Amino acid sequence: MEGIFESLQVKETALDTLISWQKQLLTTKFYVPVAPGPLISRPRLTTLLTKSLKYPLTLISAPAGFGKTTLLATWEQSLPENHLLRAWVSLDEEDNDPQLFWTYVLSALQKQQPQRFMSLLTQFQSPQAPPLKELLVALINVLSEATEHFVLILDDYHLITEPQVHTTLSYLVEHLPAQLRIILSTRTDPPLPITQLRARRQILEIRTDQLRCVADETKAFFKETTAIQLSDEMIREVTAHTEGWLVGLQLLGLSLSEQDNLLTLLQEANGSQRYILDYLTEEVLRQQPQEVQRFLLSTCILEQLSPALCDAIMQQTGSQQMLQWLEQANLFVVSLDSKRHWYRYHALFAEALRYQLEQTQADLVPILHHRASLWYAEHDQTTQAILHAFHAKEWQWAADLIERKSLALNALSWGVTQYQLFLLRDWLKQIPADVIRARPRLCLARIWILLFITPQTVLESWLNGVEAMLIDALTQDSHKQSSPLMPISQARQEQENLLGEAITYRALLRSVGENGEAALPLCQQALAQLSANNFGARAHIAVTQIFITYSSSVNDATAAIQVGLQASSFNQTTGNTDQAISIMGETALHMIGTGRLHETQRVAQQAILLDRQPSAFATPRVGWPMIWQAEILREWNKLDAALSCVEEAIKQLAQLEWTISLSHVLYGYAILLRVFLSRGELDAATSALQEIERIRMKMNQPQYIYQCSHFTTTDQVRLWLARGELDRAISWAELLNARERHDTPFTREREEVACVRILLAQTRPDLALQRLEPVLERATAGKRSGHVIEMRLLQAQAYQMHQEEMQALEALSEAVRLAEPEGYIRSFVDEGLPIATLLSQLREKQHKHGPNPYLNTLLTAFPQQNKEHEGQSKRMAKRTTDQSLLESLSERELQVLQLLAQGVSNREIAQELVITVDTVKRHVSHIFSKLGTQNRIQAVRQARELGLLNEKS
Predict the structure, then answer these.
(1) How far apart are CA 673 and CA 689, in angstroms?
(2) Using an 8 Å Cβ cutoff, are 185 and 157 in contact?
(3) Is the CB of residue 459 less than 8 Å from the CB of residue 425?
(4) Which of 715, 730, 765 is nearest to 905 (CA)?
(5) Region class of 242: left (phi > 0), else alpha (psi between -120 and 50), else beta
(6) Cβ(403)–Cβ(382) under 8 Å?
């Protein structure tokens, strides 16, 4: 019974999660737009759309105003009720979040058949949600079992720019079962495999030329909308002039009052579609009553219209009736819900109205935006309120709104989407300097909002200004104070606290630079100024001290971790759960480098449990410590669990729609890259690295470089080498050595380790050992055993390559000594065959002292071809004698293998053999596959043991 009860609780929790998610969805996006007036019959196009059901994908691609949405809506509504199940989603910019995009898709399907898709949608929104690819596989399987047929219509797909959405949709299209058809409406062709689908006849394309109104449709349009009969010659003239542009015809029809002025209109409305749009909109407005003109021009600044919002900016009542009248009059107004609570203008019509407003009543524009800002602020929609305040150039009011949210910003609870955040960033740059100078709280809020996505030099200049302002104010206040015994005023306390925050941000910026230790005195200055209850800034100080103590010349990982543990304990005691989780995540990150895996796991687990306490506010920040739990699982060779854990962590952190989430998600993809490398899934690892690169484009470079130094700097080199892309790795190293470096000593250390890997791939063990020595010494002095283990393994391979077996085994033995208490596995296994060979030799050497369970565990964990590794050299020699492998390598592959052993790059091999670089890469890939290796080092080692190389060369 207890098990049944727990199962029911899990289901109830999952259902609650789903209901919570669905409440956040805009239901109007599932509604098929209602045609605002009489429509002309276009049987040639509706027949074509019906034909589209024979194709997996239908692409309707044309510029704005050609009637794509209207056509789809008309066709959808003309279908018999029981013909097939139709799911509609109107997309917008915020759907670039892959999770939100697929939530809308699944919800649209679920609305058509709740029983079939409910469990899948519930699973997707649960805390244990599967990876996105697994979700798509499950969706394909669910659809394959259906007896019904579905069509999924995605309108305005041109607003989707996120590559992961395109990639996942491509996967669904390429594996689409017969039970589902997809129709995309877009202004531009999306980056889907259109060429391949076209070659396989799996796509139907409806483009601009097909959507243009032909003469018969133009004639029918004027007859049905204006009741004016035009001659065939005039119809041909109108069709040619508007080029069948449906919006142009609609505006022309609305502008036309009498038949005899049509020629005049056509002559006046001459030029580009942009000009025609503006001219005809003006003509339409002239024919409307004054109150209608005023309403249209006043409300065109709004993305969406509600009666209450329109009443507020018009400062009158009756907007509900006006909106209904506009809809009935076919004036480009679309109802967004069946209850007529929300509307929007056709995008082109709204744009033209705004142009008319700017031309005729420019002074009214800021007033209207100000009123909209006030309404949004009253309804607690702060982001929209701030954006309208910026449009109104009401800088002081915008500053008030931002400052009002500054405390919430530190708690990461503002709820700004990334799209809005970057829009906000652009507006923040336009705030006049005099407003900034007079508002230190505003300046600090701006710095905090944009801390990770603004160049460091810009941030430093902002800090210079705010610090000078605060110091000047404090100096003047000191002169006014008549007696040192007078109590400090509240205003002065606030100024001191703000100065402490400014110094905090400066210390944080300086901590990831070349002389990071110089930021330690700044931390002490900040603490002396900060108020006792400014827990957010004090948490940033703790994180900054961790950075400095760990990565600068201080080089004391133990002290860094102690700072983190003390700070997290203090924040738990004072009830600041969110700050405690944040600091524990930072501590766990740096603790991994020390090699204390078990303690790191305890800290990460404690942070996760802290978030789940009944008294705690549940926050996506829990994904932060989950990342490090995933890395530990990976190191312990629990790869499936590690993958699930890191994907869930990324999913959680992606909900923190705020700049710091870029930092956290970056680490998430860094660990995802490591997991895929350990799993040997190189394409997936490449995708993870591409995500990291996309994040780089949004972050300031010092922060990005420091964060990548923990894992990605070396792992990207491992990936390149595993893919046979030595040339790319060499080019990276050359650029690294050529640039002026102002990074932390820790960052330079990790870059050196990456370069050592490249040198080993080039078979240059002498130089590899030379460059390893100082960084190994530094890591050892810093008590970072996790990094020492990696360096000892590289050292062992260099000695092995140099045929110095005793030194190689000594280096390996030291790595084993450090790794055994913490259960390291993947650090050894991921180095491949050379380490497997040395481990086997080490076990044989130590056998006289008795069995070594840890060495047995390590050797068992190697891939199948490396298990039972003892005596491998003899067995390989036997295989060489059999000549089976030698015969399987082509003559050209043997030539390439010989050059690989000489450390020659792919480009040099291509020049030597007079072939293309791509051909070289293909040969290298075949060699790796036939030898059962993953990179050059392993391939050359294997080839030597098999006697495949001419050692005289």
Answers:
(1) 6
(2) yes
(3) no
(4) 730
(5) alpha
(6) no
Query: DSSP class of residue 619?
Result: -
Report the chain's terminal Cα–Cα distance, integer Å.
74
Which tokens belong to 109? 């399907």
CA distances from 539 to 497, 534, 637 (A): 14, 9, 34
CB 557 within 8 A of CB 542: no
CATH assignment of 2-211?
3.40.50.300
Within 8 A by CB and 6+ apart from 3, the residues are none
Under DSSP, is residue 862 helix (H, G, I), strand (E, B) or coil? coil
- Check: CATH 1.25.40.10 for 619-724? yes
Q: Are 671 and 711 in contact (CB under 8 A)?
A: yes
**Are 173 and 56 spatial neighbours (Cβ–Cβ below 8 Å)?**
yes
- Which tens digit of pLDDT belongs to each residue from 414-464? 344 555 556 666 777 777 877 777 788 888 877 877 777 788 888 888 899
Radius of gyration over alpha carbons of the chain, in Å?
33
Nearest residue to 132 via CA among 106, 168, 161, 104: 168
The single-letter code of the amino acid at 365 is: V
Kindly state the DSSP code that residue 305 receives in the 8-state scheme: B
Return all residues near 660 (Cβ < 8 A) that are at least 6 apart: 412, 451, 452
The chain-wide mean pLDDT, for the chain, equals: 82
Q: 150 pairs with which residues across the strands?
A: 85, 180
pLDDT per residue as tens digits for the range 375-421 = 988 987 777 888 899 899 888 898 888 777 654 444 333 344 555 55
Q: What is the CATH number of domain 876-953?
A: 1.10.10.10
Q: Are 942 and 833 in contact (CB under 8 A)?
A: yes
- Cα separation, 951 vs 898, whole angstroms: 9
Structure token pair of residue 701: 């470079």
Residue 79's identity, in one-letter code, is L
- Beta-bridge partners for 152: 87, 182
Q: In whole angstroms, give the CA distance from residue 464 to residue 506.
A: 9
Sequence letter at residue 209: D
Question: Is the Cβ–Cβ distance between 145 and 174 less than 8 Å?
Answer: no
Q: Within 13 Å of residue 271, how many CA atoms lie on the same side as its CB?
A: 9
pLDDT at 882 over 50: no
What's the rounded Cα separation, in Å, for the pair 510 and 514?
A: 8
Six token digits for residue 153: 């219509």
Question: 66: closest CA among 249, 239, 215?
Answer: 249
- CB atoms near residue 393 (< 10 Å): 15
Phi-psi region of 724 (alpha: psi -120 to 50; beta: other; left: phi over 0): left
Segments in 724-832 forming alpha helices (H): 726-738, 745-761, 765-781, 785-801, 805-819, 826-829
Pick left, alpha or beta for residue 637 (phi over 0 → left; psi -120 to 50 → alpha; otherwise beta): left
Domain spans in the chain, listed from the N-terminal domain onward: 2-211, 215-374, 375-479, 619-724, 763-870, 876-953
For residues 438 and 488, what is the distance between their CA atoms, to the nearest angstrom?
A: 22
pTM: 0.61
Which residue is it, tokens 């009944």? 614
CB 547 within 8 A of CB 516: yes
Q: How far apart are CA 273 and CA 295, in angstroms?
A: 25
Closest among 160, 202, 172 to 59, alpha carbons compared: 202
Do the Cβ atoms of 585 and 710 come closer than 8 Å? no
Residue count of the chain, please give it: 953
- Distance, CA of 930 to CA of 923 (rounded, Å): 11
- CB neighbour list of residue 224: distance below 8 Å, 6 or more residues apart: 38, 40
Helices 659-679, 639-654: inter-axial angle, 10-degree rounding: 160
Residue 953 pLDDT level (bands cut at 50, 70, 90): very low
